[in-house]
Amino acid sequence: MSDKTQPAGGAQAPAPSDGSAxxxxxxxxxxxxxxxxLLVFVLIYLLSGISKVQPEQEAxxxxxxxxxxxxxxxxxxxxxxxxxxxxxxIKPNEVKSVVVGKPLLLEEGESEDPYALGTGLGEEFLxxxxxxxxxxxxxxxxxxxxxxxxxxxxSPEELVRLATEAALSDVVARTHVDxxxxxxxxxxxxQVKEKAQERLDQYKAGVLITSANFEKVAPPTEVSDAFKDVxxxxxxxxxxxxxxxxxxGAAIPRARGDAERQKQEARALKESGINRAQGDADxxxxxxxxxxxxxxxxxxxxxxYVETMEEVMxxxxxxxxxxx
Length: 324
Hints:
By secondary structure, this protein is of the alpha+beta class. Among the domains are: 26-90, no CATH class; 96-104 and 115-219, Tetrahydropterin Synthase, Chain A. The chain is built from seven helices and nine strands, in the order αββββββββααααβαα. A hairpin with a 2-residue loop joins strand 2 (58-63) and strand 3 (66-67). The chain starts with 25 loop residues before the first helix and ends in a 12-residue tail after the last helix.
C-alpha cells in the first residue's frame, strides 16, 4: 500500500514551499504575450518598407549597397525593409550655393563701397601683375550624376568650395588686376566655372555647377583709393571709346549713303545730257534733210530762222514783214 494519500474531498495539492508558480502555466503565458508581440513586430517591420516621396523629390534605392536603376517618383511606394533596401531622398532640381571666401559681413565702421572694404571680406589672391585683391565668389550647383553624388564624396559642398578656390587661384594668377576689377570679370567667372567643373568631373563628385558670380572684388584698403581712380579712368576710357565707335558707326553709313546718292544723281544727269544731246542731233539732222530736199529755198531758210528765234527768245513777240 502506497504511502502517498490524496487529500480528502479532492482538494488541490499544496503549492511548493519555495513560492514558484506551477510549470504548466509558462507555455500559456508565452502563447498569450510573446507570440502576438512577435507578430506585431513583424507587421511593423514589413510596413516600414512603405515610403512616401514628396512632389519635389525623387528617392534612390540601394539594395544590398547596389544602386537600383530606376528612382522612385513622387507618390507612395513599397520597397523591401531595411537593411535589404535603403532609400535616399534627393531633390534633383534643387540649386544649392556655396561662397568661396570669408563670410560677407562688414565690420563696424566699414563702408559698402567695394573699393573701401577691409581685408575681412573675401580671401586674398595674387593677380598676374603681382597685385593683391580680396575676392569672394558665390557658386551655385545642383545634382549631376546620381551614382557619383551618392558614392563619390562625403561632402559635395566642401568639394565644390575647394575646386572653385583652386580654379579661382589659377585664373586670377594669369589675369591683370585692371581686367579683374573692371571689364574682365565675366571672362574670369567663365574660366573659373569651366576649370572648377573639370576638377569636379575628375573627382567624380556628381555635381554640376550652374553659375558663378562675384560677391565682391576689392583691392586692399591701403590702395583702394588709387584703384578706384584707375577704375574710374578705365571706365571713362571705355565710355569715350564706345562713343567714338558709335559716331564712327553712324558717320560711315551716312557718308556711304551720301556718296551713293551723288553717284546716282551724276548717272541721272549724264543720261539726261546724253539723251538731250541725242535728241538735238536727231532734230538737226531731220531739219538738215528737209532743207536739202527743199533745194535750199528761201522759205526753208526763213522757217529755220523763225524756229531758231522762237527757241532763243520764246517770250518776245516777233513780226515777219515783207520788205518788198
